[in-house]
């Protein structure tokens, strides 16, 4: 079954259902809700964090929990004993459609769109983890449906509204370094796999429904430690590599600050595709059309994998000395999933971050919870007065750099929007374009060292062979 047929079917599956009016379905006069009943699809690892942070809102009732792994489901059930539990999100949404207001999707990437689209077709508000989708066509479809139904939506980039990122956005838009002509962004984390696909199969654990984990993706034998848990990010059928993981977080602020749309061209310098895993090292170069904050053309270079970023004149810091590159080959799964950047010494680039290069200097933005720094003619420049001006003009208050207290705010913003109190800052109208940009870089990895030209109006590459990767076939399961 192809994507269009699946999405059509998911829509038809709920077309005849009579739904109680709610605030979340805003085409008609909304009925204000005093509490929001949530359903959670995927409650292990990041899904458990999403669950806890959403439920920490005082006006949330966790009503339903869904996971294909009963180990995760049982742990979540202990925390929210009144919630009903399911292994199949389709069954959950059908049975609970009149008892839930919002759905949180925290599955592997390949299930983001199928689960979210089904929920949105039932007029539910959706919080979906990043990247928004696995395919470009899905991102556009989710944005279109959210707009048509006027639904509350939010993508899970929880650092989006943190103080330092808001500050960097406002500083760039104030013209602190003039028009920006280049952005460098990097992460040495490695969500790639250069090896061969595994052979044979292993017994499926009794606690795992392998068919439901595969979902709409192609059927394949289970191999312990290869797919579930965690390692699916490395693999082409399920994840989006490092670019689709840390790239979303690190792209977010420059993309937002410069008010970018999707790129015109994309080139990925990486190994030849192996049909199974993403390249372990990528250098992706984008060219974006001009905005009011950029030069006539904006060049954006992304670096990932061990040793990232590659040496470049734009990335030399004051007091820099020749250092050995960062190596993440031995990084644990917890390290790879962490948003934290390691604190480094003077003259060294932060482990992860972005560098804006403009007419009047450079602005370094570490990832994350560190102040941006301005560099002019090889020296740091005091920008405390500029920061104070921006803070006062935008009522930013004192900086808070406590992830435990700041992290839940992105989820609470979503719940507040469902209650009619404010709006989301990462709705699908924004998230779909950011995700499309990310995914175009992922697709470019299938054509190493070749510049792909993207026609955003008609949603296709000039290279016909590349267009097959814009969407995927959905398996019936």
Describe the structure.
With 477 residues, the chain is α/β, with parallel strands linked by helices. It has 14 helices and 16 strands. The protein has helices at residues 3-12, 46-55, 70-79, 89-96, 112-121, 136-149, 163-173, 210-214, 241-257, 333-337, 384-393, 403-406, 409-418, 428-444; strands at residues 36-41, 60-66, 84-86, 102-105, 125-129, 153-156, 180-187, 265-269, 282-289, 294-304, 353-358, 361-366, 373-376, 379-381, 452-455, 460-461. It has a 10-stranded mixed β-sheet with strand order 14-13-12-11-7-10-9-8-15-16, covered by helices on one side. Strands 3-2-1-4-5-6 form a 6-stranded parallel β-sheet, sandwiched between helices. A hairpin with a 6-residue loop joins β12 and β13 (373-376). α5 packs parallel to α6 (136-149), α7 packs across α9 and α9 crosses α14 (428-444). The chain is globular. The relative contact order is 0.17. Mean pLDDT is 91; it is low at 11-29.
């Amino acid at each position: 079954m192809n994507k269009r047929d699946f999405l059509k079917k998911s829509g038809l599956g709920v077309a005849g259902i009579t739904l109680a009016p709610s605030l979340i379905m805003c085409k008609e006069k909304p009925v204000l809700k005093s509490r929001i009943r949530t359903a959670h699809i995927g409650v292990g690892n990041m899904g458990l964090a999403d669950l806890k942070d959403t439920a920490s809102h005082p006006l949330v009732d966790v009503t339903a929990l869904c996971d294909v792994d009963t180990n995760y489901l049982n742990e979540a059930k202990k925390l929210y004993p009144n919630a009903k539990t399911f292994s199949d999100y389709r069954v959950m949404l059908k049975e609970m459609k009149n008892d839930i207001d919002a759905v949180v999707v925290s599955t592997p990437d390949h299930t983001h769109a199928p689960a979210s689209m089904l929920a949105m077709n039932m007029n539910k508000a959706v919080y979906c983890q990043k990247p928004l989708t696995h395919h470009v066509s899905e991102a556009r479809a989710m944005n279109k449906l959210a707009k048509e139904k006027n639904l509350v939506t939010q993508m899970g980039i929880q650092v989006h509204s943190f103080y330092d990122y808001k500050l960097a956005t406002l500083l760039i838009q104030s013209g602190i370094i003039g028009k920006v002509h280049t952005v460098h962004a990097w992460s040495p984390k490695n969500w790639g796999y250069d090896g061969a696909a595994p052979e044979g199969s292993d017994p499926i654990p009794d606690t795992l429904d392998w068919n439901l984990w595969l979902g709409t993706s192609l059927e394949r034998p289970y191999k312990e430690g290869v797919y579930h848990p965690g390692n699916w990010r490395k693999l082409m059928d399920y994840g989006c590599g490092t670019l689709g993981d840390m790239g979303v977080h690190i792209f977010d602020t420059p993309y937002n600050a410069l008010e970018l749309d999707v790129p015109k061209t994309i080139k990925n310098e990486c190994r030849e595709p192996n049909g199974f895993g993403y390249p372990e090292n990528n250098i992706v170069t984008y060219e974006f059309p001009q905005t009011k904050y950029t030069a006539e053309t904006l060049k954006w270079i992304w670096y990932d994998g061990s040793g990232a970023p590659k040496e470049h004149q734009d990335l030399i810091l004051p007091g820099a000395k020749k250092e050995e590159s960062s190596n993440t080959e031995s990084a644990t799964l917890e390290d790879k999933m962490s948003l934290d950047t390691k604190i480094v010494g003077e003259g060294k680039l932060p482990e992860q971050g972005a560098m804006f290069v403009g007419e009047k200097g450079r602005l370094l933005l570490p990832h994350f919870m560190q102040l941006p720094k301005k560099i002019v003619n090889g020296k740091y420049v005091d920008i405390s007065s500029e920061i104070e001006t921006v803070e006062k003009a935008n009522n930013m208050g004192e900086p808070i750099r406590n992830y435990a207290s700041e992290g839940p705010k992105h989820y609470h913003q979503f719940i507040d929007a469902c209650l009619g109190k404010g709006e989301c800052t990462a709705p699908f109208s924004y998230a779909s374009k950011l995700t499309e940009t990310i995914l175009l870089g992922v697709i470019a990895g299938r054509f190493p060292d070749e510049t792909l030209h993207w026609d955003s109006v008609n949603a296709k590459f000039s290279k016909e062979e590349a267009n097959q990767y814009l969407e995927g076939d959905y398996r019936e399961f």
